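Bug #2210: token dump truncated for Haloacid dehalogenase?
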Amino acid sequence: MALLPWSEIDTVLLDMDGTLLDLHYDNQFWMQHLPQRYAELHGVSRAMAELELQPLFERNAGTLNWYCLDFWSRELRLPIRELKQELAELIALRPDAGPFLTAIRDAGKRVVLITNAHRDSLSLKLERVELAPYFERLISSHDYGFPKESPQFWDALHADIGFEPSRSLFIDDTLAILRSARRFGVAHLLAVLQPDSKAAIRDTQEFDAVDDYRTLLDGL
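Reproduced locally. Full output below:
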């Protein structure tokens, strides 16, 4: 991966889950903990819980509902906020993220968090990891009513914060979101090679990927 042209970047847009925070927490919650607690609380087998959950997950993937704790609480008849608290000790900042955030903030870059996480998920994670001081704004896609996969999200973000896409860097672990940002005109895009520290590295296809954020600081 070539060095970032930092002189051509004014704004740094950063995803949260899988980008700054280890995605292990979210993967464990949605793929292991939630099916188990669903089975226990609804009195069904774990296998039946997974059979009932899978089509719901597939139908809502990539939509705002996918990220909405209120939606899943209603749909599954479960206290999702409380269940997420049960695994909160797994919430962790990537070890390379802190030095990167400090460096770009100190370099005078405009740094904005843009996440699909529901505000309640964001609050839970901010209780565990001190992210807020690094950012000018902490924006949830729920504020706009559109997920980051949608072009309407980028229109709303642009109207809200007035960033220049051609002079912005965006880092995210979801390829569909990076493609949406590219269509909007964001010039500098990076994927994340290993969003979940306990899982395999990912094929990021047409996007350059970062494995250690500290390697991005050359030339800053």
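Output looks complete on our side. The mean pLDDT is 96. Marking as cannot-reproduce; reopen if the truncation happens again.
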